[in-house]
Amino acid sequence: MPRRPDQFSPRERVLLASLTEAGPGFYALVGVLLAVIAWGIIAYTVQLRYGLGVTGLRDNFMWGVYITNFVFFIGVSHVGALMSAILRITGAEWRRSVTRMAEAITFASLLMGALMPFVDMGRPDRILNLLLHGRLQSPVLWDILSISTYLTGSTLFLYVPMIPDIALLRDRFAEGPAWRRRLYTLLALGWKGTEVQRHHLERIMGIMAIIIIPIAISVHTVVSWIFGMTLRAGWNSTVFGPYFVSGALFSGAAAVVTAMAAFRWAYHLEEYITEAHFRRMGYLVITLGMIYAYFTFAEYITPAYKMATAERGYLTAVFSGQFARLFWFTQVGGVLLPLLLLTVPRISWVPRLQRVLFLRPVPALATIATSVAVLLALPAVLPRTAALGGFDVIRQLPVWIIGALGGWLFLTLLPVFRQRPIAAAVVASLLVNIAAWLKRFVIIVPTLQFPFLPIQRAPAGWAIYQPTWVELSITAAAVAGFVLIYLLFSKVFPIVSIWETREEGHRPGAALSPAGGHGGVADAPAP
Amino acid sequence: MGLTRRSFLKILAAGTAAAAAPLAGGGLVRRFRIRPGSPNLPAFVASRETPGTVVHLSGLPNSGGDVAVAYAAEPNTRTGPGEAGRRWVMVIDLARCDGCRECTRACTAMHFVPPGQEWIRVYEMKDHEEAAPYWFPRPCMQCDNAPCVKVCPVSAAWKREDGIVMQDTSRCIGCRFCIAACPYGARSFNWVEPPHTPEELAKPDDIEWNFRHRKGTTEKCIFCPGLIKQGKLPACADACPMGAIYFGDQVEDAVTNSQGETVRFSELIKENAGYRSLEELGTEPRVYYLPPRKRIYPAPPAEPEPATMGGHR
Amino acid sequence: MRRLRSLLFCGLFVVALAAMPTRVEGAEPARVVLQTQSAPDGSARLTATVVDSRGAPVAESPVTFKARTTFGWLTLAETTTGADGKARTILAVATVVEEIAVEVGGEGTVRAAILLGARRTSAPRIRPGWDVLRGVSPQPGFISPYLVPLQVILFGMILGGIWATYGYVAWFLLRIRGAR
Questions:
Q1: Three-state secondary structure of A115-169
Q2: Is residue A104 part of a domain?
Q3: Could you tell me the CA-to-CA distances from A321 to A189, A317, A324, A325, A446 in Å, in that order?
Q4: Chain C contacts of A145, Cβ < 8 Å?
């Protein structure tokens, strides 16, 4: 039975306070997000008015940032459902305080992801043609069907375990604002926590946790087939389905880490989300990252070994050509470094690094900062002589120096990160997410740069892809929209499940855990 | 020979008028496929001898034009199946192509192709280090296993039974999946509202002519079915001053170029080692190429053109 | 039976359009008669008989057989007449022609054309339904603009299963609501 409001534990009161207490920071953030979204809407209006010509897309680069966003958001949306479902099924107790965050990420990110193809459409006014003349043979239709199915499923998956909490809120806000009262009363479905109701809820969660897994996997597989079903070198890959799924899980898990840290900090949820949660999530991210690295390796080594004519172009561009910096950043900065950062707290020799003189923070940071400043100033100062510019090594040198400085910085900061594992996890997950977006871009664009027939007789500026302000504005608006949806969600519903995190014996749905619920929450501190 | 195409067509017109009169649908000539077990050749061709008579064409009805064939009218539905029993095919003789781009110009003029697009684009190709460069005109390949048709979500691209991959710009939603799928880069997108000229607007909005270009939709070469219906070669084939582009019906096994040369399609391909572009992709193109062997026209400059041309044409 | 009938129908069909030669000479071709005859194997034999103005066969006269195609005249064969004044060629099985013409004489002064083609070729029309599994392309099911039964069944099973499960869940939600 739900306890009366005065029966809430201290940490539950903190959590509930996050629903109602909104400081200036909250309003400022919402204001900024709304402004970014408004700017994005303006950009989209410009695009509607003048056509897709206002973007950097052209005949050879028919897809770009929008489709990158699409793949990215759909990817991030994966983790909520998949991680939460798998953790539920396996009865991992530590999941209780993070599953809702993950599921809400799914919801918010899926909305933004599903929006992107429509932003990308040349004729959004003909959207009904998809229903009137839709061809089941087209992967676009598969996407529409699978994403709508997934959206419905993940909404159910998010909503159902929220019902007992909504009932709690309904009771708590019995004298609160009318909209809250009505909303909670409607959504609580008359939940009283009776035996029959709990039985039904268990049943539903059992079904949903099972069925959401194949749906989630199929969604990103189908997304990858947007590329995989074409003949283009670089997309014509049989491994794209699992590759995209692994990349999605990796980036999604990292997004959950970011969200955990953000809510922990903003809503003071230290009691719910402990360092142990970050450690567990870190293990998950490491595992997923290694799977992703394996798929990346498999995806690139097979064509790179053969260097077939068709694939030579994009592979060279990605490994050592115009996309090399992006690509190697996604691999070093987006996979290797995050995995190192997440393992740092478990590496015993890290503190010893501080004994090395040039790894002590103050001298190291000073040197690095100076070097970067010099490097940035150098091109302006140095004369542009042919002798100097002719050497490839010299042209490439700044990149190597920056790389080396980055490594130095990383080593210097390692002991700091060891002392602050949460900061390390956040930095790692942010890196993963930035790199994940860039990697989607590196999957899409280099392939388009090297079609089977060479790009010839393209009008000026059509032979290279340069995203315009319209695309970047809409992308920023999509990110802002994602954050805003997530933020507002956390203001309407508790971002941590209350009834699932209650201690043994008081938990209404103790029997929900397939593992039997014994042993309590291993990593959670006693309240 | 001394028999020009025109005069023969006139004879034909006469023959058609005379012989086909007993047929239903006066002047409507249908074709007859000779196959094993066919009972007979048509019995309507009555013995009709006019010994010692000069037939004056002007005295005969139904000699209004060059065309003695009236095609059975196809309802011009958006998903029209195309000409019955036809398989249009194009052969481009690379040994004859001198890269003058008359084909591109004729195509652009005929279809009012928007700027930035070339529905038949002449590439400068050099297959490998030792190879001689050559010109490579690339229309839409009208693939039988068309990747663009497969991926179109709304049937705006569809395969007709006469081999043409048609494109409906009034249905296209602009997802550009077809552009991504096409390995030949034969599809173009109207990124902005295309400039409309009065001449273009004066033409009827006919899908078989690909008139009325629309913002946010994909377009491409469609083998000029409007011209074919009139018994004319597609604009590019007709414009080629070298006669490098042959066009015809694979069922008839005959292709014709702008110089009035009509040759057997199968023999042309066999004798000249004809090939199709990117055969290994299995797209089954309907455009064949004759290799640039013993080229009698100037090759492209050894240094290929930069990718960016700085303007259309 | 069919062969018998086919033999029965092996008629001789002639159309001749003859042009009066400008000057009459002994062995100048003045008239040509083009005949077609279908063989039991399905091929067609074309025979051109060249005679002079007095009706006598002309030997050693160059003869060109031509077929009219959509965009031009295709030369089928170039031969010369024999002693009987006849030149022959064979139209192979599965040839599609509309008209055959024969041209005699150096300047093409003597011509005859014969019109074939009474029947419309039955074109492979692809209609909705199972029809799309046969067709003109290597992958008719993926090329087709119509629904393909196999795909519909597959999609129906997968999506139907999932959405039925959602329905089941929704039903349970209603039962939660109903439970007191």
A1: HHHHHHCCCHHHCCHHHHCCCCCCHHHHHHHHHHHHHHHHHHHHHHHHHHHHHHH
A2: yes
A3: 59, 4, 5, 8, 10
A4: 155, 159
Amino acid at C61: S
What pTM does this model have?
Answer: 0.84
Residue A161 lies in a domain: yes
State the residue for tokens 């028919």: A62
The sign of the dihedral angle between the CA atoms of B20, B25, B28, B32 is negative
Whether A247 maps to a domain, the answer reads no
Q: How many C-alpha atoms does B195 have within 13 Å on its Cβ side?
A: 7
Say how many domains are in chain A. Answer: 1
CB contact B192 to A (< 8 Å) = yes
Domain ranges of chain B: 1-70, 88-290
A413-463 tens-digit pLDDT: 888 888 888 888 999 999 999 999 999 999 999 999 999 999 988 888 888
For chain C, the domains span 2-115, 130-178
Residue B189, chain A, CB below 8 Å: the answer is yes
| CATH architecture of structural domain C2-115 | Sandwich (2.60)
ipTM: 0.85
Residues 6+ apart with CB under 8 A from C114: B15, B19, B45, C13, C14, C15, C34, C35, C36, C99, C100, C101
In a domain, A207, yes or no: yes
Q: CB–CB of C15 and B45 under 8 A? A: yes
The dihedral through the CA atoms of A512, A518, A522, A526 has a sign that is positive
* Residues A235 and A228: beta-carbon distance below 8 Å: yes
Strand C99-104: give its sheet, edge to edge: C73-80, C62-68, C99-104, C110-115
Q: From 3.40.140.10, 3.90.930.12, 3.40.50.1820, 3.30.70.20, which CATH number describes the B88-290 domain?
A: 3.30.70.20
**Cα gap B98→B106, rounded to integer Å:** 16
Q: How confident is the model at residue B61 (pLDDT cuts 50, 70, 90)?
A: very low
How close is the nearest chain C Cα to the Cα of B9, in Å?
9
- Pick from A287-291, A468-472, B166-170, B186-190: least confident: B166-170
**In the beta sheet, which residues pair with residue C111?**
C103
Residues 6+ apart with CB under 8 A from B210: B111, B167, B169, B219, B222
Q: Maximum Cα–Cα distance for chain C, whole Å?
A: 118
Contact criterion met (CB < 8 Å) for A208 and C173 = no
Domain that holds residue A19: 1-123+134-230+464-514
C-beta separation of B32 from C118 below 8 A = yes
